[in-house]
Fold each of these.
Amino acid sequence: MTAIKTGEQLARKISEQQTEKVPRPTARHATPTELRSIEKKHPDDRTDFDLLKLYVKKKSTEAFEALVQRHRRQVYNFVYKMVGKAESAEDIFQETFLRVIKNAHTYTPRAKFTTWCLQIARNLCLDYFKREGLRQHVSIDASPLGDDRSFAGLLQGTDPESGEILISRELVEEVRQAVTQLPDNQREALVLRMYDDMPYAEIAEVLASPEGTVKYWVHEAVNTLARHLERKGLK
Amino acid sequence: MNDEREKLIALVLGDLPADDARELEARLATDADLQVDRALLENTRAALLAVPCEDVRDAVVQSLLKQAAELQPAIVEEADEPAGAVIRVNWLLRSTLPRVAAVAAIVFVLGVAVMYTPGVDLKPTVARVDGKFIEDGDLVESRAGRPRTITYPTGELLLDGASAVRVYSTGKYAPPRFEVERGRVVLTATGHAANVGVAGNEVQVEKGGMLAVSYDRAYANITGDGSLVEVQRMTIADVAALGEQVYGLELDISDVPENIRRMRVTFYGSELSGDEFLDSFVEAATRFGVKFAGDRQTLTYAPRGGRVIPNEEWALEIAVLEGQARVVSGDEVVPLRNAELAHNLVALNAASPTRLEGRSLPAEELNEAVVWAAAAGRGLGGRLDDVRSSDETLPGGTVIYTDTLILNGEMGRRIFKLDGPDFDFPLPGGRMGRVVQLMNNGALFEVQGEVVREFVPFGRQ
């Protein structure tokens, strides 16, 4: 028997090795050289992972603050549009970043920091709904503005100069509320797509669902909203 | 939701593929009901976008930072080393560790013995090219008209023209890192992200991404017997000096003005004699007004009009054809994405080597910019929208055929073939040629019965 492997055997071996799961370094694996190099960078050029390394290894509160400032708007906007109440959104926002702290040493750049952070925020929102007993048997047509209100005329035509569609404040408020009444998965996908301009592939990662499904949810959400607004007289 | 409604929503959100969008737009033009539906969806989208993005109050952020400051030290201690692990280490020291250490020592001694055994090379195998394994640090080169493909478990890299890529191992399970030394390459990172270095820039290609790099830089490779001649972007003065060095040609270029001597030429050849080398060189320099002065030992110059040709020592283009990538150069980072309105190309040259600037090319222009990629043996599928089948029976060995790339001049529409039957393209002057390389802006032809290769720029009808 010969010990020499053929090219195909070697290639297969390499391919098998490639598919094995290999642990990636986390923030706690950052070396002193690496940390020195990160510290030399201009603050704006530090990646999210750089900031987490500084936070975990150097106890840098400045690094954590930079991380919060960088992502506060996106995380809060997502949470607020999910729960629809400022007070609850603020609590979830804080809890999201506290969980980031607690798990900072386990984060690996396998996913983008935003994706990871939004996954945490999303789980907290779902916990909130469960805890508060919300989202049971809520229909999008249970509009906070009442069923008798017509939107005819709330769409205020088109700006002749810019060509932009002019939207009334009431209609914006109605849409905001209607979004909170969408099924969870549709609302999540819609918010990430419309307000964060997140690619479908990334949304799929946050929601742990196939890309095609996510796209369907977004389309379904727009369809539901359009039907709802149409019933209210929007043309 | 029916299929038509879904398509309409996809159109309004910009998710519909271009072909489907065109088809739907055509129907919309004549269908009043569909137009009403579309208006409603457009208004819904506008209303959705009118809902402002919310930001959290500063007081909430301050409260969070205060809580974080109190929480943080304990977490870091926990992250550094759990206390329980100390006990486990003590236990390991007493029981298992000595055995593990003994085995490790034996393995190490055997490993060192193998490493120093003559003929045994332990450099890791990182990829394959032409069925052969390549190892850490190996240089892979391709020649004009002979594209090559480097394959590795999670992707592949195509080299076209006179290109060179050095391949480095980044770890046992990680994809290799490629350093492009010159030429044109296309990387397809199918199963894993991959890194490409070029001209001091680092390009990080995300999983599923396809990247094209064109690094056109001054380079010459002329074998002593003239069996291989590759002259890329070399100055006329340098090529004259090379001719003397390799072939002993004593060329007098003193009549050629200094600024013209600094102009750069590109030509390729194989099995070239001294005379043939000289012909190729002068042919390539003709575009700058350089020609023979009576004898074949003196070059002269006659001014000529025409557009100014960029004369940088090198030019670099990095384009994303699929997915996403990031170009990092020192402090600058340019994200590239193959999507509408996103930056999909970075162009650099020797005149401004440190300034990275993303550009957004429409799909059609991007396809043209990297059309040579298809020459590497496999079409880029749906990306090259303009690839169409040909009515002509194509012989075996044909690598690419597209009838939408048009030659300038009187020939009109032509089908490019690489590695097809020789010399079946009529060229100006009644000559026949065959395509040997597609480039960004044209095709390089080998002309029947002539040593000189002819570059024909692309045009459009």
Note: The radius of gyration of chain B is 29 Å.
Amino acid sequence: MEQYLELNYREMKDLVRQKLSIHVDIMDLLNKQIEKEAHSSSAYLAMASWCDHNALSNSADFFYEQAAEERDHMMKIFRYINDNGGTAYSPEVGGVNHDFKSLEEIFETALDQEISISKSIHNLVGKCRKVNDYTTEYFLQWFIGEQMEEEQTMRRALELFDLMGTEGLGLKLLDERIPQIRNKNAE
Amino acid sequence: MKVLHQSQFFISYQCDKQRCFFIKFPHKTIQLGFCQLLAFRQQVKEIDLEAHFNGQNTHGMEMLMLCNREHFFVFNTLESIDLKEFLTGTFAMLELNSLLTTSSV
């Protein structure tokens, strides 16, 4: 076998590039992003469950929708990796918190979660630039816009607490206003 | 066939003609497609070396199945450490080759 061995890398085909359109390190980071989106989706489900149990049906619907949206984000990345020759790994989700003190705490947690996802996407874009993975950078542009909208939605919800209070009738009226915070963004 | 990287126990090769990779283990050599190489890398990344030293992995063994369960390997602690270095080195060489190919365009 030794007689066939050559150490001249210049003459070697770039098999990795032939098989994979994205950088290997970026593929790893995208797989980590899949885990984060999956965790986020499960966290929203837990929030929806809490709202359902506390007679806050509009907020529950809002978080059910959020959970579905996060899963859509996850699937978008999942398909992107596989479509470009990489291997996407189905994520394991653990450590989902089901205990909350109030609806306000839930929305604050949701905002923190969205900020964390935004930071993660920004880090990914930064890494793409470092390794010249322009394909993934282009792909991630949609997520940057999406995250901006998600953060705005959660912030708007928290502003409602300042306006209407966190207890009694105020809370009930606030729950009725929740479907509109998303619609306002969609317009 | 060209050598990509060699560690204490393992050697990786790239075969341009068959567009695949080979890995020489101490007792046999196996052929891998790129996806299989990626899957192997992922399995090796998930090896918890700390568990070999803090008593969690009492036997000090790692069992890996490669190429859609075609091959089964058992590695001891020394081989597991070497395997991590080996895969990092192999992918570093592949990246270096990509850079050289890109720069020559």
Note: The interface with chain B takes residues 1, 4-20, 24, 27, 85-87, 89 of chain A (CB under 8 Å).
